[in-house]
Design brief:
GO terms for molecular function: monooxygenase activity. The protein contains 3 helices and 4 strands; from the N terminus they run E-H-E-E-H-H-E. By secondary structure, it is α+β, with helices and mostly antiparallel strands. The longest helix has 18 residues. The mean pLDDT is 94.
């Protein structure tokens, strides 16, 4: 699996507008895209206006397909002007929800 972790710092006072666009996008991504397995929207407790998106895709092609969907394009149109700074970590998933070894 392929993972991206997007760290987004918003301009001050943009939380509600960001969430109004991002939460429906996250839900639609998991619901409508077979290649999108997880799309978590995480609000940082220690830094106001800082959010993290944790997204798991079947592969890089699934992420590319995600970026062509109507819900993604509509979301980006709204959130792009709200963003002060954004970084992306791209990673390969080696284990997800591993179970503890039984003795």
């Amino acid at each position: 699996m392929y993972c991206i972790i997007v760290q987004t710092r918003l301009k001050p006072g943009q939380r509600n507008a960001f969430l109004a666009a991002m939460l429906p996008n996250a839900a639609a991504s998991v619901r409508e895209e077979p290649g999108c397995h997880v799309f978590d929207v995480i609000e940082d407790r220690d830094s106001p206006d800082l959010f993290h998106l944790y997204e798991l895709y079947a592969d890089e092609a699934a992420l590319a397909a995600h970026k062509q969907t109507p819900h993604y394009l509509a979301c980006r149109e709204v959130v792009n002007p709200l963003i002060a700074e954004q970084t992306v970590i791209r990673a390969d998933v080696l284990a997800t929800r591993p179970r503890a070894a039984t003795p």
